[in-house]
């Protein structure tokens, strides 16, 4: 009999694995709506939807292994990272989806959110003031107008699966929608700066690397408090706090 394995669980959602089936439980049906629509549209390998019975979505597992994990060395080859970059480029070149995207913020709104989060991080003693100040300065480069692309929206490296040097599947599409292409590239390489050149080689077009670095700081600053509050540890070696320290 297959065991039930908890892949991730917090107050907003949970994902369970039973054999080769993943069960995603989410009280926010808008997230599931986006995931189902994105899976039908994107030009990259994805899981297959088996059934949907709110609040549960059942999808197939994808073959291969994750590109890596935040906080640990990646077992994948440079060619596999390049293949991931090429897959992301195909996604970004696809026609924009018909929805506006979740939590998409313009430059002014993003700057205001970031400033409020930075104030909270310092006021509550979560991070040192000099670390926050320096990364807020770095993050400024990401706060600018951009041309929307079809983005994954949460392209963590453990959402990309590879077999050898080929991408076999990209999972977790609930944040997909029009967005900043460089945010996807930054999320994919967060904590794995050594593989940025491999990803960009596969992506195949010039990008502003300073903006990617800015997104590393911005995403980490916005994520640290949420991670602590939901039972994760962003101060673990190689994770978000180390990403921020690297900018010092």
TrEMBL record:
GO terms for molecular function: transferase activity. It holds the Pfam family APH. Transmembrane segments: none annotated. InterPro entries: AGP_Transferase, Aminoglycoside_PTrfase, Kinase-like_dom_sf. Keywords: Transferase. It comes from the Bacteria. Residues 39-204 form the Aminoglycoside phosphotransferase domain. This is Aminoglycoside phosphotransferase family protein. It comes from Streptomyces sedi.
């Amino acid at each position: 009999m297959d065991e039930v394995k908890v892949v991730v669980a917090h107050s907003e959602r949970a994902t369970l694995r039973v054999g080769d089936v993943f069960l995603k439980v989410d009280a926010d049906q808008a997230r599931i709506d986006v995931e189902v629509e994105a899976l039908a549209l994107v030009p990259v390998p994805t899981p297959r939807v088996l059934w949907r019975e709110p609040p549960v979505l059942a999808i197939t597992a994808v073959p291969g292994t994750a590109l890596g994990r935040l906080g640990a060395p990646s077992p994948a080859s440079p060619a596999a990272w390049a293949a991931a970059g090429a897959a992301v480029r195909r996604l970004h070149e696809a026609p924009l989806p018909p929805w506006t995207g979740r939590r998409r913020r313009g430059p002014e709104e993003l700057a205001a959110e970031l400033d409020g989060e930075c104030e909270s991080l310092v006021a509550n003693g979560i991070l040192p003031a000099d670390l926050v100040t320096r990364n807020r300065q770095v993050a400024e480069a990401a706060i600018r107008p951009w041309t929307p692309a079809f983005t994954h929206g949460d392209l963590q490296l453990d959402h990309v699966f590879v077999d050898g040097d080929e991408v076999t599947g990209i999972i977790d599409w609930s944040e997909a929608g029009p967005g900043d292409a460089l945010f996807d590239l930054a999320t994919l390489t967060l904590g794995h700066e050594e593989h940025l050149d491999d990803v960009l080689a596969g992506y195949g077009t010039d990008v502003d690397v300073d903006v990617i670095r800015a997104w590393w700081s911005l995403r980490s600053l916005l994520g640290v408090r949420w991670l602590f509050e939901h039972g994760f540890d962003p101060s673990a070696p190689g994770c978000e706090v180390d990403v921020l320290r690297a900018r010092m």
